[in-house]
Amino acid sequence: MQNTIITPCQYRTGKMLGSGTYAIVREATHIHTGRTYACKIINKQLMEGREYLVRNEIAVLKRISKGHPNIVTLHDYFESTYLWEKERAASLEDISVSLPHLSPRNLYLCFGLCTGGELFDRICSKGNYYEADAAALVRTILTAVNYIHTAGIVHRDLKPENLLFRTEAADADIMIADFGLSRVLEEEKLSLLTGVCGTPGYMAPEIFKNTGHGKPVDVWAMGVITYFLLAGYTPFDQDSPEAETAAIVAGNYKFEPAEYWANVSGTARGFVQACLTVEPARRPTAAEALEHRWLASATPHFVPDPFNPSGATDLLPHVKKAFNAKLTWKKAGHGIRALKRMSALASSGDRLSQQAAELSATVQRFKEESAQEVMEDASITHHHNLQVQ
């Protein structure tokens, strides 16, 4: 790789922040500046054959990092380098002796640290929550989506879990995070992406149909997020993944229960309907969605509170109730499915499931190896051609 140099690592390992499919996330403090970042640590063995996912994420963030206040910033990228315990190995025997002392080889992506928590956690912690609050959040997020679309990027995994607040302050910026599934689109070639990816409840119909997809999938996801922000549950919730997929492909959803949506303006529902247009060519662009009356009007849209005619209805009681009920249902559903699966395994001795368990154990082992590497003791190959600061 060109323009690289091996140097001592400039970061100190911090506490664990989370774990994903292929990576763990830890705090990392820059030794000289004292600034703290969220560092995504990826075991290269675990990503073997999938290195393009990391390269793609870096390519996307190089294009948009620091360009918008509501998009998480990539500050640095490097990889740890194998170091022998001996300075030099004079023979093959020396090399074989040194091999057990090699440090794990990891990829590191250092992002701006968001400490304010996830979107819905913040909403549920509030004393009240109005339709105007939901509109303000959607407007801010959609403005950032429009920015990345203008830069030729499609995110492909917009959901509440990937919307984080920068700090715990009441006026903290909300940030779009996790660009691992994002892609750069070459507009001049009118390219479309293929393959199924994303989080099922937020995926657009064209992804499931595998007919090619692009930026409109992010607008669809914004429709699902808006529905969720107004009601506390998503529009295509079904009893099985198959039923959920069928509902999404058909655009089959309702504004129910009626008592929940009676507190939401028709303008807000119209915005959701526009975003959840099944045919992507008829779906508004992010820029067009920003011009919808619900977001663009100077006067907020809301349903008046009958007990307080001068003010809007508080959405928080119904939103929290629906959200908590759904969490309980999901936990029960997961438990039932797990019991059924265990019973099936006991009766059939499923070999494929055994292989899956072995794969899961391997993934966990790789993650644990990544977590054990002490950053400040490692040497790194720093990719200066990344050109981020």
UniProtKB/TrEMBL annotation:
SMART domains noted in UniProt: S_TKc (SM00220)
Entry-linked CDD domains: STKc_CAMK
Residues holding ATP: K40
Domain of life: Eukaryota
Domain Protein kinase: 11-295
Sorted UniProt keywords: ATP-binding, Kinase, Nucleotide-binding, Serine/threonine-protein kinase, Transferase
Homology family: Belongs to the protein kinase superfamily.
Protein name: Kinase-like domain-containing protein
Originating species: Mycena albidolilacea
